[in-house]
Amino acid sequence: VQLQASGGGLVQAGDSVRLSCAASGRTFSNFHMGWFRQAPGKERVFVAAIRGSGGGGSTHYADSVKGRFTLSRDNAKNTVYLLMNSLRPEDTAVYYCAADPSIILSSIRTSRLYRYWGQGTQVTVSS
Q1: Which DSSP symbol is given to 8?
Q2: Cα dist. 20→42, 58, 104, 106 in Å?
Q3: What does the pLDDT read at residue 74?
Q4: Distance between CA 45 and CA 27 in Å, rounded?
Q5: pLDDT confidence tier of residue 54, bands split at 50, 70 and 90
Q6: What is the pLDDT of residue 27?
Q7: So what's the pLDDT on residue 89?
């Protein structure tokens, strides 16, 4: 599985950005998809995840983005979308999408358990 993240850029606080992650492969609907971010000098942290068909497509969010970010998937296009509203300077980071066919729900926030990773896309939010 290959993942291609896109949609980042430089925005102002309060703006919205939609990130996309396009996946190769014909079993995309079965994959659990996650977004993580890494700010300069900090560890990569969980942002959001959406489960595959086996998990009912449920979504999960970090507390820091809950209510502002929305994760969705279009299985026909093999793509997940992270809509980020009300962006803050502290949202500035490189955003990575990740995929795994079998990660369990209790581990969905754990980056090291995802098997496949995209290349990352920079989001910079100015104040």
Answers
A1: -
A2: 23, 18, 23, 25
A3: 96
A4: 26
A5: confident
A6: 86
A7: 97
CA distance 53 to 57: 6
CA 87 to centroid of chain Cα atoms: 15
Q: What are phi and psi of 105, to 5 degrees?
A: -60, -40
User: What is the CA 66 to chain-centroid distance, rounded?
Assistant: 13
CA 90, CA 21: separation in Å to the nearest integer?
22
Helix residue spans in 5-98 (DSSP H) = none
How far, in Å, CA of 68 to CA of 75, rounded? 23
Taking phi over 0 as left and psi of -120 to 50 as alpha, with beta for the rest, 101 belongs to: alpha
DSSP state of 86: S
Which tens digits make up the pLDDT trace of 66-101?
999 999 999 999 999 999 999 999 999 999 999 999
Beta strands in the chain (DSSP E): 3-6, 9-12, 17-23, 32-38, 45-50, 59-61, 69-74, 79-84, 93-100, 116-117, 121-126
Is the pLDDT at 26 greater than 80? The verdict is no
